[in-house]
Write a structure and sequence with these properties.
The complex is a heterodimer of chains A (160) and B (392). With 160 residues, chain A is an alpha+beta fold. In chain A, 32% of the residues lie in helices and 21% in strands. In chain A, the strands form two sheets. A four-stranded antiparallel sheet of chain A has the order 2-3-1-4. In chain A, helix 2 crosses helix 3 (28-40). Chain B has helices at residues 7-11, 16-26, 44-55, 68-82, 97-109, 126-132, 152-158, 181-194, 250-263, 269-281, 283-307, 331-342, 368-391; strands spanning 31-32, 92-95, 115-120, 136-141, 163-168, 197-201, 226-231, 244-247, 319-320, 344-345, 347-348, 360-363. A seven-stranded mixed sheet of chain B has the order 2-8-7-6-5-3-4, sandwiched between helices. Chain B has a three-stranded antiparallel sheet with strand order 9-12-11. The chains are: A alpha+beta (160), B alpha/beta (392). Chains A and B meet through helix 1 and helix 2 of A and helix 2 and helix 11 of B.
Chain lengths: 160, 392
């Protein structure tokens, strides 16, 4: 049931336990125990909410930053990654194969705030060789959810 | 003009679903549980192949039997899923949906006066197709106490010296019933004994929720007397592409191909290219959809249990078939009142044969949220009916 459970709550972490037990065909207590185990094992790392900030009056700007760094002996990329992810404005840090090393995503209130972060904090780190910042203009799909369109049932209402 | 119409065509009963459809479609805000097709979109990689084939200008007829590449993939698929070998050259025909295969399959094998055995409740087209093929349909009424499976006794009782072919509609629309290996072995014995043909409509083969689907062609001595029908509509959510296929003995397929050639020419080319992709890379999509259907199935059965509505556990297709006999109404009355009072459409069991009386077909090709809303209304409705009963 583990994989199926994870797939369901990855899409809807607010689903209630009773319903979860029904659709998985197990007892509620088993769901509770499994969720606890998944949290303990660090497989479930959090229960977040997807928000389309565009539709609010709150200003937010997101950016992707490609970062090239010098890996350190014995540490590889871990040290520098940690230095970067500790900034609260940073959303995610990935080690990437290919033309650059780290992909950093972050959110700020404005373009200025993000460019300030890049020029003052990120580029000045010793191991950082270069950065390239890409601002996100529009989110079409995020976390597997299409943000720009609503599902519409276009089927005939009754069919054999 | 006098006698303008074919008596046989005029004599066909219109589908029981049609009437209901007309009422529902006039109701703007009705919630429907009456749909017989998947709610999922065709997986994008499959649609993409269809688009790509158009871009490349593959807009011509294919051979009558269908693209060789697709027939080969179907054979690979049958081998992979059912462990049965078919020859793509002589034993596979690509049709316009499973429906066409039913029609031409019957026309290819029956002669006037032959009897076609049709277990009901079942899909609406078997009976009219048998009639238009010049045969006499003989209905076998399946029973709730057998979970709507076909038993060897029922089959034996229906067979006469005129019986030519048995239609085997499992996993079943509308009941959701399946036939497991032991059930198939039991009827296979009768079929072999009386030397009759089988038309096995396995369009819902990918949608079973117990063990994996077993086909009658896996049973000894059955493949050589069976027209197996399947297609892409239900498994890959491709209803609108209109693509199905038949596998069977070369002699029968040769006749079917002739009928297909004269009536249809060939199945849609775009759909055939998309279908190749579905068979090559679609297994995971099917698995995901099956998982979602199964969750909804469990949800519905649990809800029925909670409201005390009698329903056997169906393990196939995407329908449940609850019993409403306790309310003393016909299926049609129940469905019409439910629609009028709660604006939820379900299909009366009688649309699939008279023995569907006392049952409803509820489709779970809907999102869980949608089902929750509709089932909440069903609980209200059922509660009200029981309340009224108490009053009198």
């Amino acid at each position: 049931m583990r994989e199926e459970l994870l797939k369901i709550i990855e899409r809807n972490s607010r689903i209630d336990l009773k319903e979860l037990a029904v659709i998985l065909g197990v007892e509620e207590i088993d769901v509770v125990n499994e969720l606890q185990a998944l949290e303990d094992e660090g497989i479930i790392c959090g229960y977040h909410t997807m928000i389309d900030w565009e539709k609010t009056s709150i200003e937010k700007v997101s950016a992707l930053i490609e970062v090239r760094v010098t890996p350190q002996r014995g540490q590889g990329f871990d040290n520098i990654a940690e230095r970067i992810y500790k900034y609260p404005e940073v959303n995610s840090v990935y080690l990437i194969s290919g033309g650059y090393d780290l992909l950093v995503t972050l959110e700020g209130k404005s373009l200025k705030e993000i460019s300030g972060f890049v020029s003052d904090k990120l580029s000045t780190l010793d191991s950082v060789l270069s950065t390239a910042t890409h601002f996100i203009l529009k989110k079409y799909k995020d976390h597997g959810t299409v943000l720009t369109k609503k599902y519409e049932d276009t089927r005939e209402k009754v069919s054999p | 003009m006098k006698d303008m119409l074919s008596k046989q065509a005029v004599g066909l009963k219109p589908s029981g679903i049609r009437k209901f459809f007309d009422i529902v479609s006039e109701m703007e805000d009705a919630i429907s549980l009456g749909v017989g097709e998947p709610d999922f979109d065709t997986p994008w990689h499959i649609r993409d192949e269809g688009i790509y084939s158009l871009e490349k200008g593959r807009t011509f007829y294919t051979s009558n039997s269908g693209l060789m590449e697709l027939r080969q993939e179907i054979c690979n698929y049958m081998k992979r899923k059912q462990g049965v070998t078919y020859d793509p050259k002589h034993e596979v025909l690509i049709t316009v949906g499973g429906s066409e295969a039913i029609d031409i399959g019957l026309r290819a094998v029956v002669n006037p006066g032959d009897e076609v055995l049709i277990p009901q409740p079942s899909y609406v087209s078997y009976e009219p197709c048998a009639i238009m093929a010049g045969a006499t349909p003989v209905i076998i009424e399946l029973k709730a106490e057998n979970e709507f499976r076909l038993t060897a006794e029922e089959l034996e009782d229906a067979i006469t010296d005129k019986t030519k072919v048995l239609i085997l509609p499992f996993p079943n629309n509308p009941t959701g019933a399946i036939m497991e290996k032991k059930d198939l072995e039991a009827i296979a014995e009768v079929i072999r004994k009386h030397d009759i043909l089988v038309m096995s409509d396995e369009i819902y083969a990918e949608l079973t929720y117990k063990e994996k689907h077993v086909s009658i062609v896996e049973i000894e001595g059955m493949k050589e007397r069976t027209i197996l029908i399947n297609g892409f509509s239900k498994a890959f959510a491709m209803t609108g592409w209109r693509l199905g296929y038949a596998c069977g003995p070369g002699e029968i397929l040769e006749q079917m191909t002739k009928l297909h050639q004269f009536a249809i020419m060939c199945a849609p080319t775009t759909s055939q290219y998309a279908a190749i992709e579905a068979l090559r890379n679609g297994d995971e999509d099917v698995q995901e959809m099956r998982m979602a259907y199964n969750q909804r199935r469990r949800f519905l059965l649990h809800s029925f249990q909670e409201m005390g509505l009698e329903c056997f556990e169906p393990f196939g297709a995407f329908y449940v078939f609850p019993c409403i006999k306790e309310f003393g109404m016909t299926s049609e009355e129940f469905a019409e009142r439910f629609l009028a009072e709660e604006k939820v459409a379900v299909v009366p069991g009688t649309a699939f044969g008279e023995c569907g009386e006392g049952f409803l077909r509820i489709s779970y090709a809907y999102s869980l949220d949608n089902l929750k809303l509709a089932i909440g209304k069903l609980a209200d409705f059922v509660g009200r009916l029981r309340q009224n009963e108490k009053k009198f």
